[in-house]
Amino acid sequence: MPTPDNSVWLITGIPGAGKSTISRELAQGFPRSAHVEVDLLREMVVSGNLKPGQEPLAESDAQLELGAHNAALLADSLLDAGFTPIVDDVVLQPQLARYRDVLSRWPVRLVVLAPPVEVALERDHGRAEKHLANRFAYLDAELRKQMRGLGLWLDTSGMSVAETVETIIRRADEALIPSSI
User: Fold this and answer.
1) Got the DSSP string for 60-114?
2) For residues 39 and 25, what is the distance between their CA atoms, to the nearest angstrom?
3) What is the pTM of this model?
4) 3 state SS of 181
5) Which site from 52, 80, 113, 144 is most exposed, i.e. has the minimal number of CB atoms within 10 Å?
6) Cβ distance 146 to 92 under 8 Å?
7) End-to-end CA distance of the chain, in Å?
8) Rounded to the nearest 5°, which phi and psi values hold at 159?
9) What's the CA angle centered on 38, arms 66 and 51, to 5 degrees?
10) 3-class secondary-structure state, position 35
11) Which of 139, 34, 31, 159 minimizes the C-alpha distance to 87?
C-alpha cells in the first residue's frame, strides 16, 4: 500500500490508455488523496468551450493549458492540505511546463501509460461513456516524441488494473522527474 510522499502524481497517456481508471485506483491506495480529472475541469467552461484540436487552434490550445494550470493549482492546494493529488491528463511538453511552473515547490511523479495504440483503441471502444481514441490516436507518436525519457513508462497491455497500480507504487522513484523541466 502506498504512503503519502508530498508529491503530485501526473498520470498520462492517450485516450483509452487507462488514465482515469488507474488514477482512481492509485488514489484509493493512499490514506488521504484526490483524483483530479482534468477533463472535468475543462468541461466547466460552458460557453466558448473548445475540444482539443478544434478551430481556432490557438484558442483550443489555450484551453488545454488553462486546464493544466487549474489542475496544477488544485493539486498545489490539495498538497497544502495534506492530500496526495493524482492528476489524470494528457500531458505533453506545454502542459508539463505549466505543471512544473505551478508546482515548483513539490516533487512531481510522471507515469506514462503507453499500451500500443491498438490496445487503447480497443479499450476506448469498450467504454460506455466517451469515445475519443480514434480521434486522438495520433497523440501516441507525439507523446513518445515529446515525453521520451521522462518519468515511468508502462506498456499496460498485458497488465490488470491492480498489477499496473502495484507496478507504479513499486517503481515510484522512476516516476520522479527533475524539477528543472
Assistant:
1) HHHHHHHHHHHHHHHHHHHHHTT-EEEEE----HHHHHHHHHHTTTS-EEEEEE-
2) 17
3) 0.89
4) coil
5) 80
6) yes
7) 29
8) -115, 145
9) 65
10) strand
11) 34
Specify whether the CB–CB gap between 21 and 37 falls below 8 A. Answer: no
Distance CA 140, CA 44 (A): 26
Look at the block and give the residue holding cell 505551478: 102
| Beta strand spans in 123-181 (E) | 152-154
At position 141, the amino acid (one-letter code) is A
Summary mean pLDDT of the chain: 89
Spatial separation of the C-alpha atoms in residues 55 and 125, rounded to whole Å = 26
Amino acid at 123: R
Q: How far apart are CA 99 and CA 128, in angstroms?
A: 30
43-47, 64-68, 102-106, 138-142, range with the lowest pLDDT: 138-142
Count of CB atoms within 10 A of residue 101's CB?
A: 12
Give the relative orientation of helices 161-170 and 19-28 as an angle to the nearest 10 degrees.
Answer: 60
